[in-house]
Amino acid sequence: MTAGRNTASGEFVSGWVGLGDYVDAGQLYLADGVPTRCAQHCARLAETLREIRDDVLKLPRLDGLGTLPSAVAVAEKINRTANGGDYSMADALADHIAEVEAMQALFEKIHLSYSATQDNTVSALTAIDPQV
Question: How far apart are CA 108 and CA 73, in angstroms?
Answer without folding.
Answer: 46
